[in-house]
Amino acid sequence: MQRQALKHLHVDAPRVMVVDGSRLVRRLIAGVLQRDLPGVEVVGCASIAEAQQALLEGPVNLVTTSLSLPDGDGLALARWVREAAGQAYVPVIVVSGDAQAHLEQRRFTEYVTDHFDKALGHEALAAFIRGYVQPTTIPGATLLYVEDSRVVAEATKRMLERQQLNVLHVMTAEEAFALLTAESLGRHQHRIDLILTDVTLKGELSGRDVVERVRLDFGYGKRRLPVLVMTGDGNPHNQTTLLQAGANDLVLKPIEERLLVTKVLFQLRLSRLNPGSVV
């Protein structure tokens, strides 16, 4: 299953399946979703068997699953959804307290659309799910976009500007650092809300250097200034290195517009959440 085939559509009355062995967790997630997504129908399932039965009774618009289930794991459920439930394009989100470790070790399969770290809390999970089933823009948010190909940059900028985002495009890491320095000194008219960088850049510095300097030299944490790295490198070790250096997430090439937009908008929403809501 190719990642670019996983379409994420706007749905007015989404049907969201929540698969978790804990009844309390299912109730908490359902409560937040029902508050934030009017018209949502939450299908709670405690196991793979319950999820299989529910999917046979009707389609859903999104599936969230924990990694550990009473009768198997979330990765097996993701595969079943793709292959047996007739829903090859439904987003399947793995919700786990070990999501970052699994991501870094590249354990997630092609059947998993995305991942979510449950340590971020249920409010953040609701925002994440909303980004898939009912994408909402954050007009005026400013992205610093580092890309040395003008052709690629123009195409990607159009994707982002359709979401009413302000995109500052630069060609090199050095230009990005100059803008960040100006902002830190109060000499730039925009607050930079997120950085999107290609991993391969012309010059001596790479996208990994951008991540490392943002985290170490500028001292910006992941919530203050999210960094997404675009990469076509399928090497698991290289992908892990980017995440360990401080990237919030990776966007794999070739770029699929809805997946890019979902990741960008989610990171922007998460950075605006009250820190007290993160558990």
Automatic annotation (TrEMBL):
<feature type="domain" description="Response regulatory">
    <location>
        <begin position="142"/>
        <end position="268"/>
    </location>
</feature>
<dbReference type="InterPro" id="IPR001789">
    <property type="entry name" value="Sig_transdc_resp-reg_receiver"/>
</dbReference>
<dbReference type="InterPro" id="IPR011006">
    <property type="entry name" value="CheY-like_superfamily"/>
</dbReference>
<dbReference type="Pfam" id="PF00072">
    <property type="entry name" value="Response_reg"/>
</dbReference>
<feature type="modified residue" description="4-aspartylphosphate">
    <location>
        <position position="198"/>
    </location>
</feature>
<dbReference type="InterPro" id="IPR050595">
    <property type="entry name" value="Bact_response_regulator"/>
</dbReference>
<protein>
    <submittedName>
        <fullName>Response regulator</fullName>
    </submittedName>
</protein>
<dbReference type="GO" id="GO:0000160">
    <property type="term" value="P:phosphorelay signal transduction system"/>
</dbReference>
<feature type="domain" description="Response regulatory">
    <location>
        <begin position="15"/>
        <end position="133"/>
    </location>
</feature>
<keyword id="KW-0597">Phosphoprotein</keyword>
